[in-house]
Write a structure and sequence with these properties.
Layout (H helix, E strand, L loop, with lengths): L3 H15 L4 E6 L11 H5 L4 E7 L2 E6 L2 E9 L4 E6 L5 E7 L12 E7 L4 E6 L5 E5 L1 H9 L12 H10 L4 H6 L9 H11 L12 H20 L8 E2 L30 E5 L2 E5 L6
Antiparallel strand pairs: 1-7, 2-3, 3-4, 4-9, 5-6, 5-8, 6-10, 7-8, 11-12
């Protein structure tokens, strides 16, 4: 599943191409992708895209002159957004590439947006876990309330962070994966943050000292900023909205490096299951 840096990369690059464009018509090929909303196509027809925002891994489209209508997009595991030019050539893409996406639209295209300038935006989703949902201000506020603050934006207050850790009965891996506590740290970036902070993923969250919590928060923010700057991580087949693979992969210290020597101490990196997720760590550096 694309994580925050990958979704942020898609957001920025699609925003640059879609701002100011008008939706001419919408074709729905699978009702599940729009949550069975019968008004979906007619509600968006004729609207001009004003902004594309994001909270966690949720994209938020807003429209000119529509202060109470928003389009929420979540790519989930196999969601993709493709922008196609007038000739039918792919102009931009973001999400997990699959072997079926060479011709667009195709059998995995769930929703098509035809734009007034002749371009087309396709939402592809092989496993149909992703979704597009229309909502109002109240629904948008409720969606945002499900996410905690993001470490890299400077909005995550240390006192809040530390107090929540102190009150938790969970281990660090489970705590950091909880998007209601801290948004944006998925499996890859939790492993990387814990390694940089020198903390074991199985350690009890409440056992951290204030100094350790500060170090963890600092390293988590750095990891997310670096990953965004490099366009995200290519894991499986993620590509950004220009079709370019994320290039943070070469900077990963522990994730997917099990069996290789730790770049810090030389000990072999291990992989185990923690909080239900494959977890990579150095047993020497993260005691």
């Amino acid at each position: 599943m694309p994580e925050l840096p990958e979704v942020e990369t898609v957001r920025i690059q699609l925003f640059l191409r879609l701002k100011g464009k008008t939706i001419d018509s919408v074709k729905i090929h699978h009702d599940k992708s729009v949550r069975g909303d019968r008004r979906f196509a007619t509600a968006l027809k004729g609207l001009r895209i004003d902004d594309i925002d994001r909270v966690g891994k949720l994209l938020i489209f807003s429209f000119e002159g529509k202060n109470d209508l928003f389009l929420l997009v979540h790519l989930k595991m196999t969601g993709q957004l493709f922008l196609i030019d007038k000739s039918g050539s792919r102009q931009a893409a973001g999400g997990h590439e699959t072997k079926h996406d060479s011709t667009l639209p195709n059998r995995h295209t769930r929703v098509e947006f035809d734009l007034k300038d002749g371009t087309k935006l396709c939402f592809n989703d092989q496993r149909i876990f992703g979704y597009l949902k229309l909502t109002d201000k109240k629904g948008l506020a409720a969606a945002k309330d499900r996410f905690g603050p993001e470490p890299h934006q400077g909005a995550l207050d240390f006192d809040y962070f530390f107090s929540r850790l102190q009150k938790s009965g969970r281990n660090l891996k489970a705590m950091l994966l909880d998007q209601t506590f801290v948004a944006g740290l998925g499996n890859i970036y939790v492993d990387e943050s814990l390694f940089r902070a020198g903390l074991a993923p199985t350690r009890a969250a409440r056992s951290l000292t204030a100094a350790e919590a500060k170090r963890l928060l600092r390293e988590a923010a750095k990891v997310l900023k670096e990953a965004i700057r490099h366009g995200g991580t290519t894991f499986q087949s993620f590509k950004d909205s220009t079709g370019k693979k994320g290039n943070y992969t070469g900077k990963l210290k522990v994730f997917a490096r099990q069996g290789l020597p730790c770049p810090r101490c030389g000990h072999i990196i291990l992989k185990s299951k923690v909080a239900g997720r494959g977890t990579h760590y150095c047993p020497q550096c993260q005691k």
